[in-house]
């Protein structure tokens, strides 16, 4: 467990993607990623040696300020954030609000699922990659699955991932005994990829158990 993390950036903005899109959030982007997606829009975060190791305490100071200004949760992203042990970081985020009247800061993480889990989260966004499949833990325990679409093979991968996910968990039941889905499945077109947009839209139109996720922060031109 570490008390220092390689930090690319941290900022208060709106969540632009997935289920929580449009909500006030504080983002902590960590450096380091070995997954190496050719279409990645944060390639600058891959090499953690380019970034300073910042103490958890200093990162927490910024999270506190953002929380006071209205951030409803903290998103840990990357890079691939789970290349680092996040046990101490998550404990520190939760501890910072103990004894206060405000509710504890919720912690979200965005991960490809290739590394082992560390830390504790209120929401897990799994973004699995075709060339580097996720560990089964994340298929079972994630809250939403977001698959980036560039080409037809990504659609085929999405179908397979959902099949594997459904094998890993049993949907909970509501009081009336009906099954209730507890995972949300998204297709997200890769930015500036017309083919990806067309494929994702056509698939979601014909598969109502999937939803379309867009990078709304890019349209709004905000971080």
From TrEMBL:
Key word S-adenosyl-L-methionine present: yes
Domain of life: Bacteria
Domain Radical SAM core: 20-223
Annotated pathway: Purine metabolism; 7-cyano-7-deazaguanine biosynthesis
Family matches, as Pfam families: Radical_SAM
GO biological process: tRNA queuosine(34) biosynthetic process
Positions annotated to bind Mg(2+): 42
Residues that coordinate or bind substrate: 14-16, 29, 77
Residues annotated to bind S-adenosyl-L-methionine: 39-41, 79, 127-129
Cofactor(s) essential for the protein: [4Fe-4S] cluster; S-adenosyl-L-methionine; Mg(2+)
Xref: PANTHER family: 7-CARBOXY-7-DEAZAGUANINE SYNTHASE (PTHR42836:SF1)
Function according to Swiss-Prot or TrEMBL: Catalyzes the complex heterocyclic radical-mediated conversion of 6-carboxy-5,6,7,8-tetrahydropterin (CPH4) to 7-carboxy-7-deazaguanine (CDG), a step common to the biosynthetic pathways of all 7-deazapurine-containing compounds.
HAMAP family: QueE (MF_00917)
Record-stated family: Belongs to the radical SAM superfamily. 7-carboxy-7-deazaguanine synthase family.
Protein name as catalogued: 7-carboxy-7-deazaguanine synthase
Organism: Prochlorococcus marinus (strain MIT 9301)
């Amino acid at each position: 467990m570490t008390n220092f993390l390689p930090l690319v950036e941290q900022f208060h903005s709106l969540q632009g993607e997935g289920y929580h899109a449009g909500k006030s959030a504080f983002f902590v982007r960590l450096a380091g990623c070995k997954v190496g997606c050719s279409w990645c829009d944060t390639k600058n975060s891959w090499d953690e040696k380019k970034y300073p190791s910042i103490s958890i305490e200093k990162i927490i100071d910024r999270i506190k300020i953002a929380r006071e200004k209205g951030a409803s949760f903290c998103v840990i992203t990357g890079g691939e954030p789970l290349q680092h042990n996040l046990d101490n970081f998550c404990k520190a985020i939760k501890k910072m609000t103990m004894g206060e009247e405000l509710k504890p800061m919720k912690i979200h993480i965005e991960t490809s699922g290739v590394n082992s889990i560390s830390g504790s989260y209120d929401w897990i966004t799994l973004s699995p990659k075709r060339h580097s499949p996720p560990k089964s833990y994340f298929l079972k325990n994630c809250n939403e699955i977001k698959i980036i679409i560039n080409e037809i093979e990504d659609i085929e991968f999405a179908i397979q991932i959902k099949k594997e996910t459904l094998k890993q968990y049993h949907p909970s039941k509501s009081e009336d005994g009906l099954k209730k889905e507890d995972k949300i499945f998204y297709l997200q077109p890769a930015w500036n990829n017309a083919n990806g947009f067309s494929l994702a839209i056509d698939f979601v139109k014909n598969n109502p158990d999937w939803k379309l996720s867009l990078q709304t922060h890019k349209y709004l031109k905000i971080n």
